[in-house]
Automatic annotation (TrEMBL):
GO molecular function, one term: metal ion binding
Keyword terms of this UniProt record: ATP-binding, Cytoplasm, Magnesium, Metal-binding, Nucleotide-binding, tRNA processing
Organism: Paenibacillus radicis (ex Gao et al. 2016)
Full protein name: tRNA threonylcarbamoyladenosine biosynthesis protein TsaE
Compartment list: Cytoplasm
Membrane-spanning ranges: none
Recorded family membership: Belongs to the TsaE family.
Pfam family, one: TsaE
Gene3D superfamilies assigned: P-loop containing nucleotide triphosphate hydrolases (3.40.50.300)
Gene (UniProt): tsaE
SUPFAM superfamilies: P-loop containing nucleoside triphosphate hydrolases (SSF52540)
């Protein structure tokens, strides 16, 4: 059976708007949420993750997990699992038992997720972040599965009302 797919594209003009998007998605999240991030170095994957973590109530500093691969944080709403799989081979990633996190009690964000696509849960929110100038970014969002497709619907509705100066 083919999965339901949703799509949305959100442009932000600065880091503050990235924070707002991360807060919005954090508000939709629950235990088991999977957000798969891709985009060049410096696109804003870690920055997005940091605002997301803050929004689910993680206290203290969330560093880039480039060297630690996986970091686990206690959040107020739920735990936060932050991964950066850039340095992993598929074999290494496979041995880490990522499913314990993906199907655990927290929300997971994976940076460079497409490198381990075969290991990701089939239902998830994929986000590709692109530069639009110095501080602007475009978030190209694909929701796979009914729940995440509905997130895209919500994002599109919010995006459509974005130019009316309400922020
Ligand atoms: N709109 C924006 N959203 C996210 N980051 C931004 C934005 N504008 C500027 N930046 C800066 O871009 C850099 C992104 O770095 P980082 O989040 O580490 O990227 P990545 O994890 O994708 O390699 C940070 O220095 C951040 O302050
Ligand atoms: Mg990063």
């Amino acid at each position: 059976m083919s999965k339901q797919i949703g799509q949305a594209a959100i442009s932000v003009k600065d880091e503050r708007e990235t924070a707002k998007l991360a807060e919005l998605l954090a508000g939709m999240s629950s235990p088991g949420t999977i957000i798969a991030l891709d985009g060049d170095l410096g696109a804003g994957k870690t920055t997005f993750s940091q605002y997301f973590a803050k929004a689910i109530g993680v206290n203290g500093v969330v560093n880039s997990p480039t060297f630690t691969i996986i970091k686990e944080y206690e959040g107020a709403a739920m735990p936060f699992y932050h991964m950066d799989v850039y340095r992993l081979s598929m074999e290494e990633a496979d041995e880490l038992g990522l499913d314990d996190y993906f199907y655990g009690n927290g929300a997971t964000i994976v940076e460079w997720a497409s490198l381990i696509e075969e290991l990701l849960p089939p239902e998830r929110l994929d986000i590709y972040i692109e530069h639009e100038g110095e501080a602007g970014r475009r978030f190209r969002v694909t929701g796979i599965g009914e729940l995440y497709a509905s997130w895209c619907t919500a994002l599109n509705e919010i995006g459509a009302g974005k130019n009316d100066d309400r922020n």
